[in-house]
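Worked Example 4.2. Consider the chain below.
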Amino acid sequence: MSDNVAVFDDGRIQQLAPPTELYEQPQNSFVAQFIGENNTLEGVVTQITDNTCVVRLDDGEEIDATPVNVSRVGERTKVSIRPERVEFNKDRLQEGAHLLKAEVLEFIYMGDVFRTRLKVAGNDDFVIKSRNAPDQVRLTPGSQIEIGWMAEDCRALDA
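Applying the procedure from the previous section yields the following C-alpha cells:
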C-alpha cells in the first residue's frame, strides 16, 4: 500500500497526495469528481481574499468558499462540497455555517446512512449523507429545508 496516490487524467498527474488529502482537499474539479461522491454548484467569483471567496451561483445565490484554483473576480468556478459536510439539522450546524434553501427530492435508506437527494440552487442532483442514528430525521420528499456547511468545506475549483 502506498502513502501517496497519483490521480491521472489524459496521462497527466492532476494531484499526488495521501488519500485523505485527495478526498478532503482536491486541487481541481477532476480530482474532486474522481475521488468519492461530490456536489458541485457553478457560479462566478465576486470577491476574493487569501482564504475566502464569494461565489454568485448561477441562480443568483451567493455563498462563501475556500479559493483553491481561482484567482480573480469574474472567473467562473465550480464549487465542490462533499455530501457528509452538508448539514440540515440546525442543532448540528456550526456557528458561521452558510445556509441555503433546498427541496427534498428523494430519500434513500442505505442501512448505516441515509442518502438524500435535494434540489439546491437549481441543481437537482445535490446529495447529503447523514448517519442512521436513533435521533436522525428521515427527510420526506417534497419538503422544504435549509442546509448549511462551513466555507472551509466548500472549495472553489476550476470551471
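The longest helix spans residues 19-24. The longest strand covers residues 98-109. Compare this with Example 4.1 before moving on.
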